[in-house]
Automatic annotation (TrEMBL):
Signal peptide coordinates: none
Lineage: Bacteria, Pseudomonadati, Pseudomonadota, Alphaproteobacteria, Caulobacterales
Pfam families (UniProt xref): Acetyltransf_3 (PF13302)
Domain N-acetyltransferase: 79-211
Protein name (record): N-acetyltransferase domain-containing protein
Gene Ontology CC terms: cytoplasm
GO molecular function annotations of the record: protein N-terminal-serine acetyltransferase activity; protein-N-terminal-alanine acetyltransferase activity
Organism: Caulobacter mirabilis
Amino acid sequence: MGGHPGERGRHGLLQQARRRAAGSRDLAAGRGGVDEARRLVSAPPKTVLEVSPEEEAAIRLAVATADVGTLGLGRAIARPTDAADLARFLADPRVSDAIYDLPRPIDETNVRRWIVEGETQWRAGRRLLIVSREATGEIAGYSDITVWPERSAAELAGAISPSRQNEGQGGAGALHTFGWIFETLGVRLMCLTAATDNVRSARLIEAAGFVPMGTRDATRADGTVRRSLYWEMTRDQWAEKWG
């Protein structure tokens, strides 16, 4: 991602974030941002928080300048050059079958387009599409953090390689990422979904302290709909459980 911006650069980014925050309020009022709305597949959380323009701008800035390397070794923002490797990783049904918001069909062209959209949303302070690589260079997993700055909320999706799942690394990695999202991005609410038959994810999510809130229909990128289990957790609830 390169170096972090200096004070002047951060001031400029904050001004941009404030302008984008105003644009997102226009979107909510139906006055603009059509292309951005069409790109967003994930639905915002059921709970609606009151968010000031200052908080919204701060979240956008935090997303746009986040150092994803602090999530762990081998993490980086996904780039178009990752498309071929990521497509091969996602082509494994053990990785992708349970995930609704992946580009389909899964191929290099669609994955590259997905990555480019992710870069655009990252610069707008709305998304972090992250790849994780082994020391050998092979893809070990990915994380897709969708952020709604105007709602002070985020959602996490992602997957790790089947071999890492069997080693029990998924739970520890997810907990670390949940905390990172609350602390680094500054959102006050997270929502998560999982397929109704995804018992492993449901157990992990509830063990982390997320509160079940029924179901919601999740729309895939190809327009098909999947009924999903749904959870939410506030930053205060996270702090109370995990300190």
